[in-house]
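Please check what follows.
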Amino acid sequence: MTLYSINMTIPMVIISEPSNIIINKMIDLLPSITLITGGLWGVYKYIQEKNRNFYLNILENVYGPLFEELVIMEYMRKHLINAEKDQFEVDKAPFIQLGKTEKTKKDEDLETLIYDLDNKIKEVIKNSNLAYAPKDLVVLLKAYMFLDEIKYMPKFNYEEEKDKIQKAIRRNVIMGYSKYRKKLGLQDISLFYNFCTIKKGNIKFK
């Protein structure tokens, strides 16, 4: 019988002196890298929280109050359309004023304004810091509130301009409200789809 012997050479990795120095340097830098990473994460979370507070402020103080009033107006529009046909369609009356007439003791007509979106817009402008509001909405609100000042200017079509700005405000408020809810991560789960739809800058009660 012939016996064979096998010599196996195990490969060895020899780390040279320069490589050793690099590895040691990297190990020394690990605490600093960890500290910098933690600092950057802290800055990111701070900015994220600031943005959240910013979005919440816009939603609560600007878009929220206006959107709530639009919901009331659109629900009122539904019943007015049922009673008065197409007179109160959005294309013909973007904003609606509703009043009532009562008889006084002297048998005189007393008119009382029940609903007026203009009053809510004035309230929002007065009580909110519009510096934080989106500039397109600020432009629309300010221009709308100034309309009456130039109502009687020569060759100025007041009703046409008013109609155009009202439609733009209405669309901006509906879309802006949805946008900032989304930025805050608020999800809508609707159980009343057959009651009301909100999409493409429009609110419609069925």
User: Anything to note?
Assistant: The two ends are 100 Å apart (CA to CA). Residues 19 and 25 are 10 Å apart (CA to CA). The mean pLDDT is 77.
